[in-house]
Amino acid sequence: MIFGAFERMVAWRYLRARRQEGFISVIAWFSLLGIALGVATLIIVMSVMNGFRYELLSRILGLNGHFGVVSAQGALLEDYDGMLSSLGEVPGVIRAAPSIEAQALITLNGNASGAIVRGITPDDLATKPVLSSNIIAGNLGDFEGFRIAIGKKMAERLGLGIGDSLPLISPRGQVTPMGTIPRTRSFSIALVFDVGMSEYDSNMIFMPLSAAQAFFGLDKGVTGIEVMVKDPDSLFDMRPALMKALGERNVRIYDWQQSNSSFFTALQVERNVMFLILTLIILVAAFNIVSSLIMLVKDKGRDIAILRTMGATRGMIMRIFFLTGASVGVVGTIGGFFLGLVFVDNIETIRQWIEALTRTNLFSAEIYFLSHLPARLDWNEVLVVSGMGVLLSFAATIYPSWRAARLDPVEALRYE
Question: Residue-wise over 278-288: b if at least 16 C-beta within 10 A, else e?
Fold first, then answer.
C-alpha cells in the first residue's frame, strides 16, 4: 500500500484533535463541510440545468418539427404534395407533414387576447407523443372539422371545457364589396391538453388543417412543412439530403437549433457561469484545508522532530500530513456526492415543502415555462465534480505536507 499502518495511525491521531487543538479541528470540520456543500451544490445545480434543457428540448421538439421548410419568398406553399413525397423518401426522415401557423384574436365575454393557431392534420396530431399522450379531456377522434384543441391553462383562464365555443378573429381580412373585414368564426373545443410547458398550455391552439385553411383564407396552401428525423442532433448530415430531395424548388430550410438558438444559447451560458461560480465554493474549502494543515504542522513541530529522530523519513512525514488533509477532502466529497444525489432525487418534494412552509411560489410556471422543477443526473458530470473535489483537496495538502517534511529536527527541538 502507498500508506503504511504507522502513517495511517498517526494521521488518524492528528484528525482526532485534543482540547488544546480544538481550533484546528474546527477549521478542519468547516473545510469538510465546505467541500461537501460545494460538491452537493454543483451536482444539484448541474442536474437542474440538465433537467431544464432536457424537458424544454423534449417538449419543443415534440411539438415542432426538427426541420422546417418554408417558401424563400415568404409566400404560401401551394403544391406541397410532391415535396412531402420527396422528403419522406430521404433516409432518416420519420415524417413530413404540412402545417399552418398564424396568429388569431380570442374574443370572449368582452375580453380580447392573442393566441397562436397551428393547423395540422389529425394524423399528425396523433403522431406527436408529447401532445397525444397528454390529452386530459376529450378524444383524439373528435379532432376534425371545426373542432379544436386548447391548453389546460387557456381553458382555465377562459373558463371553457369540452363542447364549449371559442370565437376567433383572423388577422387575414375577407375582401367584400364593402371593403376588407376580419374573418370571425366560433370553434368547438374537442380536446384539452397539458404538456407541462406554460407557453404552449396558455397560448397555443391546434386546429385541423382544413379548418385552418378555410379560417385564414389560404385555399389549399400551407405556411410550411414540418420534418421529423430519427436523430435531432444530426442536423449537418440531414440538411444536404433534404435540400437535394427538394431540388430546385424556391424554398428555405431551417432547423430547431436555428429557431431556438437564443434560448438554448442563454441556457448554456448560464449553465457554464453557474459551474464556474459554484466551483469557488470547493476552492474556498480547499484553502481552508491548507490553513488548517499549516496550523497543524506548526503545532506538531516538536512531534515531527521526535518522529524524525526516531527514524521516520521525510517521505513518511509528508505522507502522514498528506493523508490527514486528503481524508478531509475525500470524506467531504463522498458526503457531498450522496447529499447531492438525495437532493436531486427528491427536489420536487423539497420545493413543494419549502413553498408550503414559506407560503411563496418558488417556481412560477409562467416565468420558467415548466410546471415542475426538473432535475436530470448526468453521471459523467457527477464524476467530474466529485473528481474535482478530490483533486482540489489533494492539491491543497501538498504544500503543508512538504513544509512538514522539510522541518529540521534540530531547529524544532532547540528550545525544548
Answer: bbebbeebbeb
